[in-house]
User: Fold these one by one.
Assistant:
Number 1:
Amino acid sequence: MIDKAKEIVSAAKTKMSDAVKFLEEDVKTYRVGKANPLIFNNVVVDYYGTPTPVPQVASVTTPDAKTILIQPWEKKMIPAIEKAIMDANIGLTPQNNGDSIRCNVPPLTEDRRKELIKKVKSAGENAKVVVRNARRDAIDALKKTQKDGLPEDMEKDFEQDVQKDTDSFVKKVDEIVSAKEKEIMTV
């Protein structure tokens, strides 16, 4: 029974950790006024009938702080990549020179900054919901193991471990959100 309870706590911690990792990766893709090639991870281009992220069909680099350079591995992909960038509505206008696509990153407007902060806070709340759901599921599973023979005091100890993990991961989510907010508001 103790091993099963430890597995439950471990599984909950893994779910919580995954939620935080997902949040970290998600907020990296937000454009915050400086060139960041990661914003193209969510831009999908039609590559021979298969929806494919831009970084998988082209080299995406930042030659300077305000420019992103996209060099497709096949020149015939240039129009498709341009169309995908426009369709993605990420606030960048692609400029085609025949060999590559250049995107100049404009400074963020105040409205766009506020919109991004709302988006970051929403993503943070979603991550917290996942963490809390993992806690709830773990506590329910621990109560079932108590009915199956786990001593009540041990079950309470495991519940406290799950709660400590929950508090820790919620704090990490808050730190990620506040760091991204600060980055967005920095002009």
Number 2:
Amino acid sequence: MRFSVFFLTIFLSVDVLSTPSGLPIPRFVSLRSSEVNLRVGPGNHFPTDWVYQRANLPIEIIAEFGDWRKVKDFDGTQGWIHKSLLSGHLYGLVLKDKTPLLGDNDKNSSVVAWLQNGVVAKLLKCKGDFCQIQIRREDSFKGWVLKTDLWGVDIKE
């Protein structure tokens, strides 16, 4: 019995580390630059299916092949991006208009600002059902948003 539990533990650890990066899949990352090609396959010889034109847009990695990452965006579009065009900095995408940015991680907290659909914000930390975010425009706003109002956040974390 002890041997089978030990073997299962080793097997599960090897499964996570069997990706080229050694990181778990799926996981969220962001786009490193404001022009990133989404390709139909893992290589420069594959045609470009889509061009993202927004730095820091959150993307979910769903598979790896060498230096290429198969990704999925907020509307379900999938394709391949070279790892050099991705960043480990985490950002969230606001999913609906009039999303309240709260002063604290409490539904009854005062509203700091109202966010529109499509706003990209840096994720600072998550606590319970909320994530603290920062939005940089002319002025910088910081506050809390429900995880369910963001794409790019693992709801279970």
Number 3:
Amino acid sequence: MKKDDINILDWQRILTGENPWLFLVEVFFRTIVIYLLLYVVLRLLGKRMNAQMTITEMAVMITLGAIVAVPMQITERGILPTFVALLCTIAFQRGLNLWAFNNSRVESVTQGDVSLIIKDGRLQMEAFDKSNATREQVFSRLRKQKVQHLGQVKRLYLEACGHFSTFKYKEIRPGLSILPQQDKKLWEEQPKCDDYFSCFKCGNTIQTEDEPDQTCHNCGDNHWVAALDVKEKQFG
């Protein structure tokens, strides 16, 4: 479009572009057909597409969005090519899932793998760094499950779909508080466990009478805080 063709009061161009008003009726019917076609495709792709998606499933959803957008709005594009593209998407997704089901290595590459983020009340730094998660993201998920310190956590897994799975100790151990430091009053009110200190970075907890002056063997940090000993019954 040339500069001279631009008129800010040309409402027909602004609202319908270069198409006649009658094309809006065609858009309506195109949208209905594409919507029904997309609904069928999503049903064929399975229930997983309605849950937390994996990387490949997210890629499929983005692809579907790109496929269906064009034929609904562009007069020169028919619906049949979209139908073929959607069939190819179904075949690709089903084929990839079948391949991954029969080959664990393919499944790990395409779907992602589970990561062990916390083990025995300690952050596993290598897995934690690779997960691209932050301490506050992890601690926030734990707080939602009424966890107040890492001594309650036996295992925390980051699943391939992005969910966190938590397994708690039946008998709670001393551990690092995961409450926000900004809440200084609550932080100070938390009951401390005598002769136990936790690494502030990873939660590694050791027994000693005085505050340690050594580096943590789990992460190499040297910032220690008093460990907590909070019982489950104290949660509201």
Number 4:
Amino acid sequence: MLLPKIYQEPMRVLEQVEAELRRYSSKAVDIEIFFQSYPDIQMSFPHSNMDITKEYLDLTQKMGKGESACLAVARYTHDIVASSNIKDIQIYCQDHQIKYLTTMDILCEAIKRGQLSKDECNHFITKVIAAGSRLPVSEIDLYSC
């Protein structure tokens, strides 16, 4: 819910990413509230752009649909990708000069803009790690923003 408050710039969630998010039944209510609160954030995949569509189909052979859609669109629109799945996107982004934000980048920006405290970030980091995801640090002070 904080992303649109942290980043004032227009933000979009591609339909493939939305579909992946909605598969998390434990977060279904939160996700529904998010999209109801920010209806303009939803974005259809630009199927009419053959370069993007071809790139998307190629990428889905190597990674998930959400990451593939984001990377294909960003490659041809010069948008910024936000992802917690650095393992899948980092090399592709570097190869194609795509800017990307990590979970840690977003937490740093949230602190900078006064949307989260360090304690709130640490709580978030603890929850993410406990859920089985990987982050480079166990607390925000150990990360160089």
